[in-house]
Design brief:
496 residues; Alpha-Beta Plaits; four-stranded mixed sheet; two-stranded antiparallel sheet; globular
């Protein structure tokens, strides 16, 4: 077993209000400079919707992530034969039109316009060319437009829904939506790292953060195509690739990343997971419906004496092990099994997890009233405002049973707390819901407190990263740098 530590994250989507404060906090610090105008390392999308860049989830076009070829994982974006050719022309590379042409306004015209009868205006101009531009898209262009036939109906996650489920989602009086904040997933099996012909991309062994060595990057942009989440961007000014760095300079001094610190809804949790790097290839080589449980099998119990001993042997500090034991991420992902990775079918083993939104889980309208009652509440999942199958396409590779398990547990916790605060649900009904939701009163109370009442120290358990120790001569060099795919066979030869 190769036990490694990963600084991991959970986003609780029921708490996200779509304010984009996280995006602005990141933008103002990291990408407010020439060449990075169109980059949003953190963005918030409305789902259903087409996202940013447009239709980034359509891997039939973008070719991101891994594919399962027999028992082996192979990059979807390139192979031995075409890797070199695609350095010079890649038909699956997103263009500026897939993002948007960044713009600003000629504010000086408000002050220098000649006197006239009309109010002067600040016309939009391109931040790239400086020429006037017609604004036709933006990073959150479909914000709050979940009922729009232009955006929501083109969401690729709706492809497997029946006509009835689509109608259920888009009935005007039943429009429902969710917000999906996205940053780099800092995957355990990153396809971007495996695709890089110059070896500039790497995964730090001591904390799992995926970074780009700007000195080594040649701007081939193979990583942009290979990342299925499209969270690597090309800086047209420097000719280098850039991505979310999880604010590692702040983490190394015990501070919280900017998007976490600024989050208004307090949806973000940060902590440490211990995982077995030797199991990554096998875990990501199973059928889609088994991927969630397969990934969980690679995440290790931080209280297991054997795991602790192997972690110490691999150079993981006592502070990291202690942080893993106190981690809110482990509770959401492994103990309660409420947090799920986004599009795990891309097989990159994302280490950012989401608690799916419960939303108003109400069934179809009946004479102006929602039909569900406490007695038949779980059956109402089949006709929920946001179809279960849609959530399954996002968070469980289409496995509906996993989403139903999460939804039932969340509902049970909600009604357990309501019974305590309001006293309008009798004990028999609550006990039945708790059994069906597979949750005990003690666990429900623990989930409620970490979700609604958690302090900063409970949401963010940050260990001292001790970078100077990780790069010392006595440290395992493989632990310091990480490797392409962490042992996954990569059928790609290094380019020039």
């Amino acid at each position: 077993m190769d036990i490694r530590a990963q600084v991991s994250m959970v986003f609780h989507l029921d708490k996200c209000i779509g304010c984009h404060t996280c995006s602005l906090a990141c933008k103002n610090v990291w990408t407010d400079r020439p060449g990075a105008e169109y980059m949003w390392w953190n963005n918030v999308e409305t789902k259903p919707g087409t996202g940013f860049p447009t239709l980034w989830e359509d891997q039939s076009h973008y070719k991101g992530g891994w594919k399962l070829n027999g028992k082996n994982l192979e990059l979807l974006s390139q192979n031995k034969l075409d890797a070199f050719i695609k350095l010079f022309y890649n038909p699956n590379q997103p263009g500026l039109e897939d993002y948007y042409e960044p713009w600003t306004y000629q504010y000086e015209n408000l002050f220098t316009a000649p006197e006239g009868d009309d109010q002067p205006t600040a016309i939009p101009v391109s931040q790239i060319t400086g020429e006037p531009v017609d604004i036709v898209a933006g990073p959150n262009w479909d914000d709050d437009l979940s009922g729009s036939p232009l955006y929501a109906e083109n969401d690729v996650n709706l492809d497997e829904l029946t006509d009835e489920e689509r109608e259920q989602l888009f009935e005007i009086e039943r429009i429902s939506m969710m917000y999906l904040p996205r940053i780099c997933n800092h995957c355990a099996n990153p396809s971007c790292v495996a695709s890089c012909p110059s070896g500039a991309l790497y995964k730090r062994g001591e904390d799992g953060i995926v970074l780009v060595n700007q000195d080594m990057c040649k701007g081939w942009r193979a990583c942009v195509t290979a990342c299925p989440y499209k969270k690597i961007y090309y800086n047209w000014k420097t000719g280098k690739s850039e991505k979310c760095i999880l604010c590692y300079p702040k983490l190394e001094t015990g501070q919280v990343p900017n998007c976490f610190q600024s989050c208004v809804g307090r949806i973000r949790y940060l902590g440490v997971l211990l995982y077995d790097a030797d199991r990554i290839a096998a875990c990501m080589s199973v059928p889609n419906h088994a991927l969630i449980e397969s990934q969980r099998s690679a995440i290790c119990d931080p209280y297991d004496p054997k795991i602790i001993a192997l972690a110490r042997k691999n150079g993981i500090s006592e502070e990291f092990i202690d942080a893993a034991q106190k981690s809110p991420i482990y509770k959401y992902v492994m103990k309660w099994k409420l947090a799920l990775p986004l599009h795990i079918e891309y097989r990159t083993m994302p280490m950012l997890f989401y608690v799916p939104p419960l939303l108003p889980v109400m069934g179809k309208m009946d004479n102006g009233h929602y039909a569900n009652t406490i007695d038949g509440f779980f059956s109402g999942l089949e006709s929920a405002r946001l179809p279960i199958k849609y959530l399954a396409n996002l968070f469980s590779a289409g496995n509906v049973e996993i989403i139903e398990y999460v939804m039932k547990k969340l509902i049970a916790v909600r009604y357990y707390r309501r019974s305590l605060d309001m006293g309008d649900i009798d004990l028999v009904q609550i006990n039945r819901m708790m059994r069906e939701g597979n949750v005990s009163p003690e666990e429900a109370e623990e989930i409620y407190r970490l979700t609604a009442l958690a302090t900063v120290d409970q949401r963010f358990v940050i260990p001292p990263l001790q970078r100077e120790e990780a790069i010392s001569e006595t440290c395992n060099p493989e632990l310091c740098r990480g490797s392409c795919g962490l042992g996954v066979p990569v059928n790609v030869e290094r380019g020039p």
